[in-house]
Amino acid sequence: MTKSELIEKIAAKNPNLTLKDIAKIVDVVFDSIIESMANGDRVEFRGFGSFCVHERERRTAKNPRTGEKLLVDARKIPHFKAGKQLYDMLNK
Questions:
Q1: Which is nearest to 86 in space by CA: 53, 44, 34, 37?
Q2: 3-state SS assignment for residue 14
Q3: Which residues contact 11 (CB under 8 A, 6 or more apart)?
Q4: Gap between the Cα atoms of 16 and 60, Å rounded
Q5: How far apart are the C-alpha atoms of 55 and 22, rounded to whole Å?
Q6: What does each C-alpha distance from 30 to 15, 26, 27 come to in angstroms?
Q7: What pTM, to 2 d.p., does this model score?
Q8: Per-residue pLDDT tens for 31-81?
């Protein structure tokens, strides 16, 4: 599902809202999630899942073509963990 498909689905269930208003709401939700994660906070939606940030240490990697060793800097990786309700629906 894309962002525009999500907006259309919400609009179908809420005919009193305009597409512009729904798009603003969706943008605010996504921006809030991104901002919270950028601050190192965990974002949790009960039953759906949680978003958090994992940190990867600095490490040595190998270029598969040349065999040359490279240093890969430490970085932050977004992580999603499915909630129980989502997990159960996917595995019934």
A1: 44
A2: coil
A3: 17, 19, 22
A4: 55
A5: 34
A6: 22, 6, 5
A7: 0.78
A8: 999 999 999 999 999 999 999 999 999 999 999 999 999 999 999 999 999
